[in-house]
UniProtKB/TrEMBL annotation:
This is Imelysin. It comes from the Bacteria. Keywords: Signal. Residues 53-343 form the Imelysin-like domain.
Length: 396
């Protein structure tokens, strides 16, 4: 056989093999990848709309209610008005805890967690500020508090210190005039910074006219919509090169929240020390833990209860239905165990319930960890690279 004939025969064999691959390839793989990609796209949109934006919108409403309650207390310092302000603080605090699983993006870039939830409170400096105010050497306003006062002297824990002692609202007669002034300004700044947090996700242009005007009057810079980048990975104007990158943000923050929650359960619930958690004056530790877990559930299931859409849970279920059910069970079991530990009373049974709660939480963290590569490294999410790998095209 001549060399030329042999080469022609090899070419014929290769063509036949290639044809066989095309003819017998399973078209279902491409269809599954396409359907998974559509599910990912919808899950990212609903994660933003039904979880992040819905939570921040509720937070802004509740911070506005807290500010209004603080002003009523300032105008008429009665026990009833102080109790109402304390109740408004607890409601806003509960919603604030729901934001814990999305501390990436704007929360990290603009330090919203630090501005609203800095811990621990710098009580000596708060008292020094109150002394200066009482002596007439300092007039506190929102601009001064935002721009010249450390974050450890404002936010949720500053408002808590002014409203609570030993887990209960303070008697109104105990509040000094300077404390009433400080509370009014603190809650005003909290409302402004909560609104700015919302603006960072949806864009200042999407705020209500009153909200946008309030931020502009206070000197806040306009924000572009981070949601546009997050929900359009691969677009030239997005920092996310593919769907894998925002999914990694969601899943890695979920793991971080779960892993930090487990020791916090032990620290807060297996102790009689009111300083074991963050909320030393309201003793809100149990509610804080429950809020963080609820935020994690919202992130996994696709938003606030009653308004949920497509979710990370749906993505996991498409790939491993058993794992998805195990994560859901672990979420419910952890919630049940935290509640049981918080209500268990004497030290011995409480210690047992706390160990059970920590164990349930550790199972939850482990199961979420298993889900990460399933979702973020699925072929529909290619490429799997994270930030900094690709040069983004110029938008000029």
């Amino acid at each position: 056989m001549t060399s030329k004939l042999r080469n022609l025969l090899y070419l014929f064999v290769l063509v036949c093999l290639a044809s066989a691959v095309v003819l017998y390839a399973d078209p279902g793989d491409d269809i599954d990848d396409f359907l998974m990609q559509r599910s990912v796209d919808r899950a990212l949109v609903d994660y933003v709309d039904k979880n992040v934006v819905a939570t921040l919108s509720r937070l802004v409403d509740e911070l506005q209610a807290l500010e209004a309650a603080a002003h009523r207390l300032h105008a008429e310092p009665t026990d009833a008005n102080l109790a109402a302000a304390a109740s408004a603080w607890r409601a806003a605090r509960a919603t604030w805890q729901l934001t814990t699983p999305f501390e990436f993006g704007p929360a990290a870039q603009y330090n919203f967690d630090k501005q609203l939830g800095a811990w621990p409170l710098d009580r000596p400096l708060v008292e020094y500020t109150l002394t200066e105010m009482a002596a007439g050497r300092l007039t506190l306003d929102a601009t001064y508090l935002r721009e010249r006062v450390y974050s450890t002297r404002r936010g949720f824990l500053a408002a808590e210190y002014l409203l609570f002692r030993d887990g209960r609202p303070r008697p109104a007669r105990d509040l000094r005039p300077a404390e009433l002034d400080y509370l009014a300004v603190t809650t005003e700044v909290m409302r402004l910074e909560g609104t700015d947090f919302l603006a960072a996700w949806i864009g200042t242009d999407a705020l209500s006219p009153a909200q946008a005007e309030a931020l502009a009057a206070a000197g806040f810079a306009p924000r572009t919509a981070y949601a546009d980048e997050f929900t359009r990975p691969g677009h030239y104007a997005s920092r996310y090169p593919s769907a894998s990158a925002p999914l990694q943000e969601i899943m890695q923050d979920a793991i971080t929240v779960a892993e930090e929650l487990c020791p916090a359960i032990d620290e807060v619930l297996d102790s009689d020390d009111p300083h074991a958690g963050e909320t030393w004056y309201s003793h809100n530790g149990l509610a804080d833990l429950q809020g963080i877990l609820q935020g994690l559930e919202n992130a996994y299931l696709g938003g606030l209860a009653g308004t949920r859409g497509r979710s990370v849970s749906d993505l996991v279920a498409r790939l491993d239905g058993v794992l998805d059910r195990r994560i859901r069970i672990a979420l419910a079991d952890t919630a049940y165990r935290i509640a049981a530990a918080g209500e268990s009373g004497p030290a011995a049974p409480r210690a047992l319930e706390v160990r059970r709660a920590v164990s349930a939480c550790e199972k939850l963290a482990a199961r979420i960890t298993v889900a990460v590569p399933l979702v973020t490294m699925h072929p529909s999410a290619l490429p799997w690279a994270i930030y900094g790998v690709y040069d983004m095209p110029s938008t000029m």
